[in-house]
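thread: overnight batch results

M.L. [08:02]
morning all. the overnight job finished for the chain we discussed friday. pasting input first so we're all looking at the same thing
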Amino acid sequence: MHRLALIVLLLLLALVVAFVVDTGSREETLNPAADSAEPKGEARPALQRVADAPVVREREALTEQEGRADSSETSAAPSTDTVELSGTWTVLDAEDQEHRGEDGRFVLRLYEPREDIEISVRGGAWSVALAPGAGFDLRELELGGRVTEPLENVGDLEVPPSRRLDLTARWVRPVVLKVVDAETRVELAGITVIRPLGAGAWLHPGETDGLETNEVLARDARSPVELPVERAMSNRESLWVRAPGYGWGHVEVPRTVGGEFLVPLGAGGDLEIEVVGVPEGTSPHVRLRDPKGVEREREWEHVLFETEVAGRSRLDLAALAAGRYRAALELGHRYRRPRELAGEEVEVRAGQTAAVRLDASTYAPPAVATMSGRVTLPTAWKLDSFGVHFNLIGEPSVDGSPQRYLPSSAMEQVDIERGEYAFRMAELQCGRWELRFNPLGTSVAVTLPPEGLHGVELIVPPPAEVTVRVTEAGTGTPIADVDVHYMPDRTGLTSGGVLNGAGARGDGTFHFRTPAGRVDVWVISDTWRFRREGFDVPPGTSEVTIETERACGVVLKVRDAGTLLRVDAFAPRILGGGANAGEQGALIDEDGPGLELRYVVPAPGAWRVELTSPAGYAPVEPVELEVGPGEFLERLIDVERR
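M.L. [08:03]
and the structure it wrote out:
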């Protein structure tokens, strides 16, 4: 009996050994990469995966060889989950000479699943296995050991049917700043260059030397100052530059283009600002402006510096260019008609410290009062909830909140059949207010006096169902490739408002529901002329027709000695002339790297292209154009360095 049990045990043991050996053989066959350089059990992170064509082919060959060696054990079918996307990169130098066969790398960012794959470029060629139709961006391209800027669009791509993606890039040149005395043009030394961090990059660095609160790119340097090439920089980058005895100078450089840029600095001095009498409960700003009103792009109302007082009584501004300034203590945002509490003009002299005192103790804040009234909403609207926006018009609020909101839950329903609701808003700043019904947009403007205002009525008209037909002028052909928006009447109001989108039916007709009465309808398109028309629509259903024509405009390119530059670095404006005086063109499209911008203009006729030259470029003469109906004129503008 014992002998029989021993025999059975030996047989079971032999079966287990045979199973283990067979399993190991299968694992070796099904895992052909097991003998690669990677340690077993260590997964490579997504950013470390290198899709290298020679390596991919080597692994595929190894898989095929091992599969044939053990065909009796497995007959794996070829995978259909991925396809090989391959391509080449060609890189251009500063003279636009082509360089092929460069080694490098870039990052492919997949959309689904969200993943970054680092890809090697060998001899200008690359490949990677992706799912058919996968969406992705290409980023961080380096070739020949240098950062490059792609000339084609490398964002929002998909695997093409050809499974090929051949692209071209340009080596990015370093930015070189030639820093000189504004009067003598002598190059300077001891130079500091900073890149502001956060918002307001165009504002003077302010109270410190700029080294603590900003990124320092150069310190104690001598002109010309060469800045290192960096990837992932915005094209128009604000830099601030100074030298001992000079005021801060501001320059915007196209980092993706690079090159030399002239930065003239004027002699500078310092400014002490004393602040007294700040009203309790307020948060004013100290702002410094150019009193001459020189237009400076993106600097609302010529603000050169601003900071919130935040309980301080003294501010020290270092290295201001010598000249006259206006210092002011203000409430409200700089481009929303701020309220000045105190203000003085001051002259900053070279090598000296000027002082100015801003005394707000005589400031009398506006009174506050109560506003009450009724909102009437016809029951046909069948809204479960609504509200009223109270918007202060034309001046800042004392407490920094020019908009208040009152929901229907805070109102009292006084007449169910008429849809009447009573409201009361206490402690509103006296002045002019807009009451706008949300979500329908009906508005009324009223003035709140110190004694208060009662009996205000905001009456929402009954609903009107409006169908808009958009057709081509002269032919009556329906146009579907436009967007239609609308805005209810805003009697007594000249700005603001909310555009609402109309629903498209796909046949050139659009539908929306709005309060009966006057309504503005807007037709917006990249290929058809913009139209805005007003209609009186009655309660119930109605139909209106808007005719339009093919859009026209200008396509701009900028070139420097044969090299295309990013157009937005020159801040183009398309201004109307003749019958189009006072009108401007609107940017509607650009190619991926920004080398071509497409502008639409409101009407055919005379137009003028103006470019603002960045530092280092000579002024560009305006270009006069005559744009025909339905025409997009292409203009290549040559620019020259100083």
